[in-house]
Amino acid sequence: MTGLVLALGSSYAQVSKSIQFREEVFNFGSVEETGGPVTHEFVFTNVSGRPVKILSVQPSCGCTIPSWSKEPIAAGKVGMIQARFDPKGRPGYFTKTLTVTADSEQAPIVLQIKGQVTTGKTTVATDFPSAKGNWKLKASVFNMGTVYKKEATIKEFPVVNGGTKAITVEHVTAPAYITVEVLPSTLLPGTKGVVKVSYNAKQNYRYGFQSDNVEIHTDDDQQPVKSFSVNATLEDYFAPLSPDDLIKAPQLKLNVTALDFGRLTAGATAVREVPFTNSGKKELVIKAVQGNCVCVQASATKTTLKAGETSTVKITFTPQDRPATQQKAITIYSNDPQNPVQRVTFSVYVVNQ
């Protein structure tokens, strides 16, 4: 079985187009284990033209209890989903999800809460579990989150000298769009500092999730060269537009968010062509198309579309050594100012030969 091609006549729409959350990820920060449950409200707006009802909210753990607006939310009105997390018996870092199903969405929306449960007996070992030589950090990866292509995004990551000698930074090697600075440049034994990372996405032509390597050269006798990954999701920034400008803007039109590839024999390749249309009045530009796995390759047949033009995105899935049901996705980045990031998910069942 060499390949399977299917052209779909319908178009595909952005995930979560009917309800828009103010945030989909919330970090509680430090949570005391004996301090009792903590809560956060995810507020959303119904941006569709009809009432929307939340059908269910499924937590990923029994430690997280959800509650939500049970009545239909009228167009233009706001609703709420509350996450209640109980830290008792769960010391250390946590990340939990809430899977939201609404009657207006074909694909669920996944909300996330995270944080660090502390026991009141903090030590370098518990608060800084990752080691790079005598440096102790909270994580071995510098996660910048979503970085927009405007002014540089800056984040600081704490670091502790867990050794018995002072450690001085000598120099840093990094891509041109990433600047790394350690403050102070010399860390005395037992003292804390920060690794300050600045990411200028305008200098990086890529889009979507990106991972770069940086090296911090020190005189640490245990590990002088400390290598880190800097992870970021790159997106264009769009300033607010007037109603007249929005009417004239390009618009990437998709009507379906989920595909079923059916059954696929291991070692074979499945191919789908997904149509999309520029339903706006200005030229639509596809900046990038990205799969969420090395097993997924995707590209647009035509990347510049005039008003009313249609093109396709070709999706190629190669299962390699991935058996049973697979859930994958592609993300499309465009100059549509209202929905610049849109996603198509697909499932496939891989059958061993």
What does this 3D model show about the protein?
The strands form six sheets. Strands 1, 20, 22, 24 and 26 form a five-stranded mixed beta sheet that branches. This protein is mainly beta and 353 residues long. The longest helix has 6 residues, at 243-248. Helix content is 3%, strand content 55%. Residues 1-16 have low confidence and may be disordered. It folds into three domains: 19-118, Immunoglobulins (Immunoglobulin-like, Sandwich); 127-235, Immunoglobulin-like; 241-351, Immunoglobulins (Immunoglobulin-like, Sandwich), CATH 2.60.40.10. It has helices at residues 124-127, 243-248, and strands at residues 5-7, 19-21, 25-32, 38-46, 54-59, 64-68, 78-85, 92-102, 109-118, 130-132, 135-137, 141-148, 153-161, 167-173, 178-183, 186-187, 192-199, 208-218, 225-235, 252-253, 258-265, 270-278, 284-291, 296-300, 304-305, 310-317, 324-334, 341-351. A hairpin with a 6-residue loop joins strand 27 and strand 28 (341-351).
Note the overall shape. Answer: globular
Number of domains: 3
Strand fraction equals: over 45%
Q: Order of SSEs, N→C?
A: EEEEEEEEEHEEEEEEEEEEHEEEEEEEEE
Radius of gyration: 23 Å
Number of helices: 2
CATH top level assignment of the largest domain: Mainly Beta
CATH superfamily of the largest domain: Immunoglobulins
Distance between the termini: 11 Å
Low-confidence stretches: 1-16
CATH-scheme architecture of the largest domain: Sandwich
Largest sheet: 5 strands, mixed
Estimated helix fraction: under 10%
Helical/strand content category: mainly beta
